[in-house]
């Protein structure tokens, strides 16, 4: 069930912690519901830029694509499911949105980037959002995990993203990279997913330092807290959550706003910044 309620009522319900359990999703009317076909209203902060976003058929990646389109960018969304990508582009409802079927673990990033650069003539912005999470209990899954299970998580969340970054750096003479990590990257890492995000956090910092003074490419990151995406639906049946400071799950649109700010920061020459969030609220 999807319910849309007035923004001020939504805030009151969250503050009083009375949102009914069992609802699939509650969307405040100060955000547009994901998946609605709409005509993008143009801004100009990213005019002339081309962004490639992995794992963007829905959730955070989709919301980032929509946010960048609003500021004048052309966007290429990628994922491994062509049917869902086609649907996502249709809902983005813009001639400046395109898609590519792209498995970031296939090791063929250079070929894919050449194809991507041919769509709109270049790629200026790389947003690495693709990730998978399978464990139910992060405190015990490691002791029960098979080697194949461990590699499945790390091949996507770490090595797939590293491969995207390294290929971008080798092929393009400028631009900015934004890695979507997780605030689990700054906690004690006891789960396989958490460990993968620790690795990506350190790599993001390390790549930024490595490129400093030798490349015009900037590298930044965001570490979102729990957000209302499909990844969380198996764990939480409501937008209310006790652990974040604001006592609720973040919405993908909120994370997309943070991503947009970091992308602007990167295009302005700042590198090595990783914004950590708790739900939808920025911590550092």
Note the main attributes of this structure.
eight-stranded mixed β-sheet; 2 domains; disordered C terminus; two-stranded parallel sheet; Rossmann fold; 284 residues; globular; alpha/beta
Describe the protein.
- The protein is an alpha/beta fold and 284 residues long.
- It folds into two domains: 1-30, no CATH class; 39-282, 3-Layer(aba) Sandwich (Rossmann fold), CATH 3.40.50.
- It is built from nine helices and ten strands.
- An eight-stranded mixed β-sheet has the order 5-4-3-6-7-8-9-10, sandwiched between helices. It has a two-stranded parallel ribbon with strand order 1-2.
- Helix 1 (7-16) links the parallel strand 1 (2-5) and strand 2.
- Helix 2 packs across helix 9 (252-267) and helix 6 (147-171) runs parallel beside helix 7 (192-211).
- The longest helix is centred in the middle third of the chain and has 25 residues, at 147-171.
- It is globular.
- The chain starts with a strand and ends with a strand.
Write the layout of secondary structure elements.
Blueprint: E1 2-5, H1 7-16, E2 25-28, E3 50-53, H2 59-70, E4 74-79, H3 82-92, E5 97-101, H4 109-120, E6 125-128, H5 141-144, H6 147-171, E7 175-180, H7 192-211, E8 217-223, H8 230-233, H9 252-267, E9 274-278, E10 281-282
Parallel strand pairs: 1-2, 3-4, 3-6, 4-5, 6-7, 7-8, 8-9
Antiparallel strand pairs: 9-10
Helix pairs in contact: 2-9, 6-7
